[in-house]
Write a structure and sequence with these properties.
The chain is of the alpha+beta class. It contains 8 helices and 7 strands.
Length: about 250
């Protein structure tokens, strides 16, 4: 099944960056919870020092603990509100996304310095082995079913499959990466399939989930057998290697 779709700045934010932002914010929520506990400990120590319950010989240590815990707490709050301020910039994320798909980013910046004006047409194809995406001036990006999260998220008229996001997908990614050599920056990325090209989204998602499960079972069985020396042949992994190296 072949299809095309356009990725401009707004489409990138909806289909790709939005999922990354959710993961970043989830991490900052955990960080904020721990930072709040440490901050309260620091405040308690400072209160005890000011009340004379802690000897003056320990005042420097108390002030250091208070300052560090307060700084961590402030950073966690900033991260919750504006994760891009304390993480990688939007420009770097966009450049990494284009580079992972084979686009010459340096040449693109010479043509158009403003990354928010970048736009590219992506040609997609759902094959028997996985999903293939090709960008203008880029190389074909082939992602096996086995590393996709079987639960797609519907975002603005497209099904978004996360790459190596669930535990099993990450495990298979690590098993296949030495053989398939996945592009840098693809892990935790997103594969987009426009709903308008599918026809019946529910049937499509069911079929893709079945393919993901079947391919995962084959990859796990073959890699396990090869590692234990029970079987030398790995037909499914070999097919995936041939497909990604075309």
């Amino acid at each position: 099944m072949e299809y095309t779709f356009e990725v401009n700045w707004e489409a990138y934010r909806r289909w790709y960056a939005s999922r990354d932002a959710k993961e970043i914010r989830r991490g900052f929520r955990i960080f904020a919870a721990y930072s709040t506990v440490f901050m309260l400990v620091g405040v308690a120590c400072l209160a005890l020092l000011l009340a004379g319950r802690i000897t003056n010989g320990m005042d420097l240590g108390v002030w250091i603990v208070f300052g560090v815990t307060m700084a961590q707490w402030v950073v966690s709050l900033i991260g919750l509100a504006r994760p891009r301020l304390v993480m990688i910039s939007n420009r770097r994320l966009v450049e990494r996304w284009y580079a992972s798909r084979g686009v010459n980013v340096e040449a693109l910046k010479l043509i158009e310095p403003d990354y928010r004006q970048w736009s590219v047409t992506v040609r997609g194809n759902v094959t028997d082995l996985g999903v293939e995406e090709t960008m203008a001036d880029g190389y074909p990006l082939r992602v096996p079913f086995a590393v996709l999260d079987p639960h797609a998220e519907t975002i603005d008229g497209a099904l978004c499959y996360r790459v190596a996001a669930d535990k099993e997908g990450l495990r298979i990614w690590r098993a296949l990466n030495p053989v398939l050599h996945f592009p840098t920056g693809l892990i935790n990325g997103t594969v987009v399939v426009p709903i308008c090209a599918i026809g019946d989204p529910e049937s499509f998602q069911t079929d893709v989930a079945r393919r993901i499960e079947a391919q995962r079972k084959s990859v796990v069985a073959e890699s396990t057998a090869a590692a234990t020396g029970k079987r030398a042949q790995t037909p499914v992994i070999d097919d995936l290697a041939d497909w990604t190296d075309r």
